[in-house]
Amino acid sequence: MTTLNDLKTPFKPNWCPGCGNLPLWAAFKNAAVEEGWDNTNTAIVAGIGCHGHIVNFTKLTSFEGLHGRPVPVAAGIKMANHRLNVFVFGGDGDQLGEGGNHFIHACRRNHDYTIVLHDNGLYALTTGQTSPATPHDFKTKSTPQGNPDYPFMPTTLAIAAGATFVARAFAGDIEQLKDLFIEANNHKGIAIIDVLQPCFTFNKEFTHEFFQKNTYYLGDDYDPTDKTAAFVKSQEFGLKSIPLGVFYKEDKPSYEGDLPQLKGAPLIEHSPVRKDLDELFKKYI
Amino acid sequence: MDVSKLPEGPNLCPVPLSLLAKKAGGGELLINTVALGAVTFHLGGDLEILKNLIKDEYGDKGEEVVVANHKAAELGFEFALENYPKVVSETLKPVDTMSSAVPRMVINGNEAAALGAIAGGVQFAAIYPMSPISNILHVLAKHQETYGYVYKQPEDEISAINMIMGASFAGARVMTATSGGGFALMSEGYGMAGIAELPIVIVEGQRGGPATGIPTWSSQGDLRFVLHAHQEDFPRIVLTPGDPEETFYMTMEAFNLAEKYQTPVVVLIDKNICENDKSINYLDISKYEVDRGNFTMEKVEDYKRYELAEDGISQRSIPGVGNFFIATSDEHDAIGYSNEEIQNRNDQMHKRMTKLETCAKRDMPEPELFGPKEADVTLISWGSNKGSLQHAVKEFDNVNFLHLAWANPFPVEKVKEVLESAKHPILFECNYTAHMGGIIRERTGIDIKDKFLKFDGRPIYVEEVIEKINSVLKGGKS
């Protein structure tokens, strides 16, 4: 059993007061307590950005890698030990900018881990520049005249690239996000959660109030197995019309579940000692 | 072809290839087989063996093709026999395999690296295709189910090195392979593995650069690159085997070194090793023991992943066994928490860098010296030049050859000792700026003035080495 106290480290979060990372972190810890995620069954991977600090405040064995690169690290972990629950934390700069290539390939491969996209619409650790999720015309430090580029929707991209679980959440709704973390982890295969989160310091438009006013939950009448509908729904983003919830869900064997070498035991439990290779060497006589 | 422009020395045996090909009943396509027939005679080979090989190769193309090729080979062989009966060597003399207890193998460097990895206990490999190393991944992919490891083709080399770092963190023995261009993309991960102390093996098969360069030709121009790639300092072990056999044993050893010293190990080879077949002794793995170093998969009380240690080596563990730690690209304390304090930074840097000294003391062998201890000319080289230099040394009784198979850590004392007593050292390298020459000067203070450098992608040939040695021995221009 995991308690909140088990997840404590000697460090307190260094995120700004009001940062969307704080409720996201709380939701994750609540999910860990509910599901019993601890150091015998879970590993977390983070990139570089404000989100990456999470490893210092959450006592779960973790890998804080390079900017944009947590996704292939998670794939490596999962192939080596598929019994672990693996969570990737990455920002919109980390996952969609520097790591964009890894992100789309993660979507098509169906490795069994969860990508949590800390989506605050700009680069915050480097004090507020435009990101691939920044709206057109939006003013940031790198686009003082307004963003000349157009953003893409990470949820739409994920569905197009073949992800088998695609959801959007608002960091401020801790209870709903907690449930989503659990549902995503239980999904067999890749799960993407685009978490809309305010950056209190550098993004004065996407505030808590903005998301509270403009988001709504997909209702019971929404069918998350209809890919075409999901594709259309995932592109909705405007005043009073930002949908939250699971856009798309598909049952498919996970990458690890399909590998014959992993039937039985995880890779790391196979002995690396190979004493008899005559059958192999004789092919070269 | 202007025959008068050929260098003196070789035997010239002109053969009318087109004419004989036509006589064999085929067109220009058959001239290769005519030439093969002639060469088989000159090298002392058996025509029947060649004909059997032709049947094996072309059997599925139909009887007609086999007959034509047999005829072409016969005509080439007979022409050489009739016209140049004295020009014949023992190169292809049939070996009495029945009396030999241990068979020999034919293997190239890529196969050697792949087999070395399998023998070395690889559990996970992620390799993006690139000349000249692609065949490593072909071999690994083929045998993965039999030997229970996983080969994965990633989306790029950045992903390759990050995937193996993830698998290494989780406890697998891991490798990747690439050439210089791919290694450029891996540079970022290379240092990450250094600071997070993740054991990884990287096989780098050099080709001529920069950029796409001369992609199907060889080079030794990446030595400085693998020694210095990535910002700042971290311990990296760099091995430079000289042939497929050495590549097999060093790749196998690289997996132990990586885990013992918890840091990246580069096996630096080149196209001339990767893609050239060599006949070697049957590979012997009887003495090899998998050594995972200071590593535990059990729960340890008060576990500290990066605890300071005199030899620089802390106890490594994995996620999922109850030991909490953070593998991080940030400077970190003993647990792995980000830490930028002065004392901690100094301690952790020192701990990591100490591992190289420990490795030099515990695991680095002395470099091999071929030929007599006392010599008038001493050849110094590394990597794939080994074969030509070994061959050339045998042609003299007063020439020896120092083969450097470890570039980092570096065998300073032995190199110094050999060079201080060398009457006339000559450096042989396939790059423009004498990378190894520079390293020798940096580490020993000795500048080898006489350098034979080649950067056209072709190997250093035995004839070139012999000519160079002769020019020195005769007091000619060196």
Write up what this structure looks like.
The complex is a heterodimer of chains A (285) and B (478). With 285 residues, chain A is an alpha/beta fold. In chain A, 31% of the residues lie in helices and 17% in strands. Chain A has one domain (4-284): 3-Layer(aba) Sandwich (Rossmann fold), CATH 3.40.50. In chain A, strands 2-1-3-4-8-7-10-9 form an eight-stranded mixed β-sheet, sandwiched between helices. In chain B, strands 3-2-4-5-7-6-13 form a seven-stranded mixed β-sheet, sandwiched between helices. With 478 residues, chain B is an alpha/beta fold. The radius of gyration of chain B is 26 Å and the shape is globular. Chain B has helices at 17-23, 31-42, 47-58, 63-83, 109-119, 134-147, 157-169, 180-196, 223-228, 244-261, 271-274, 342-363, 386-394, 412-421, 435-444, 462-473; strands at 104-107, 124-126, 150-152, 174-178, 200-206, 237-239, 264-270, 278-281, 326-328, 368-370, 377-382, 399-404, 406-408, 425-429, 450-453. Classes of the chains: A alpha/beta (285), B alpha/beta (478). At the A-B interface, β1, β2, α3 and α5 of A face β1, α5, α6, α7 and α8 of B. β2 (62-64) of chain A pairs parallel with β9 of chain B, so a sheet runs across the interface.
Descriptive key words:
heterodimer; A: Rossmann fold; globular; B: alpha/beta; Rossmann fold; 3 domains; five-stranded mixed β-sheet; 15 strands
The tally of strands of chain A reads: 10
Q: What is the fold-level CATH name, i.e. the topology of chain A?
A: Rossmann fold
Q: Output the structural class of chain A.
A: alpha/beta
- The H-level CATH homologous superfamily of the largest domain in chain B, spelled out, is Thiamin diphosphate (ThDP)-binding fold, Pyr/PP domains
What distance separates the N and C termini of chain A? 57 Å
Helix count from the secondary structure assignment of chain A: 11
- The helix-and-strand class of chain B reads alpha/beta
How many distinct folded domains of chain A?
1
Q: For this structure, what is the CATH class of the largest domain in chain B?
A: Alpha Beta
> N-to-C SSE series of chain A?
HEHEHEHHEEEHEHEHEHEHH
* Oligomer category: heterodimer
Give average pLDDT of chain A, whole number.
96
* Share of β-strand residues of chain A: 15-25%
